[in-house]
Amino acid sequence: MILHGASISPFVRKIMLALAYKGIAYDLQPLNPYLEKELAHKRHPMGKVPVLEHNNQTIMDSTVIAHYLDDICPVPPLYPGTAEDRAKIRWLEEYSDTRLTSLIGGVLFYQKVLRGKILNKDVDQDAIDQCLQHHLPMVLNYLEQQVPAKGYVCEHFSMAEVSLWSIFRNGWMAGLRLNSHYPKLHAYISTIEQEPWIANLISEENHELSSFYCEPMIFKAN
Fold first, then answer.
1. At what angle do helices 159-173 and 10-22 cross, to 10 degrees?
2. Residue 65 near residue 59, CB atoms below 8 Å
3. 204, 194, 207: which is closest to 28 by C-alpha?
4. Would strands 51-54 and 57-60 be described as parallel, antiparallel, or unpaired?
């Protein structure tokens, strides 16, 4: 099993964690679609990551890959529980991959880490301020109401935790800190980070990526 991508991508990190959770061995082949566009398009028609190769098959899109992993290795499940539980897990995965990622990944991480740190280019501070002051608070307020004060969204660890933590990790790299502004969400993220496979990845990223980390941002909730 070969996974193409880099853990700095929340979507690749999502699959790395899913594989670790299931105890599936794999080889990570580094691929940065921003810096290796031609190679990325050879792997994926839209030049995206992650891409998974397994048994002479190529599987694309993090959500498709996650369901594929559940199909070939059902235990432990990434989408556990009742139909209602799985619907909530899938919704939070979708919300994380779209709305939350568009702000944390598309604005904060893109401007502060990708442009400012990796590419050494000017950042759009107005875009960052707009995100922090007007757009992101509404999303965080919504998630504050969706996550539990203790434990996980459903009874067991699931793709909801994997997806949300993966993109919040990019926010942390960009300097985003929740702390007391969103106590339930902060506690929820902290609980996820106590899982050993999450802690292992944090340690690896801190060793490899710390030069790209940004100073904590002053963030006031609306």
1. 140
2. yes
3. 204
4. antiparallel
CB atoms within 10 A of CB 138: 12
DSSP string spanning 82-122? -HHHHHHHHHHHHHIIIIIHHHIIIIIIIIIIIIIIIS---
Would you give per-residue pLDDT tens digits along the chain (222 residues)?
999 988 889 999 999 999 999 999 999 988 665 555 555 556 655 556 698 999 999 999 999 999 999 999 999 999 999 999 999 999 999 999 999 999 999 999 999 999 999 889 999 999 999 999 999 999 999 999 999 989 999 989 999 999 999 999 999 999 999 877 899 999 999 999 999 989 999 999 999 889 999 999 866 655
The answer to pTM > 0.85 is yes
Q: Is residue 104 within 8 Å of residue 11, measured between CB atoms?
A: no
* Residue 158 CB neighbours (<10 A): 25
Helix (H/G/I), strand (E/B), else coil: 3: strand
Identify the DSSP state of 218.
P
Cα separation, 95 vs 68, whole angstroms: 20
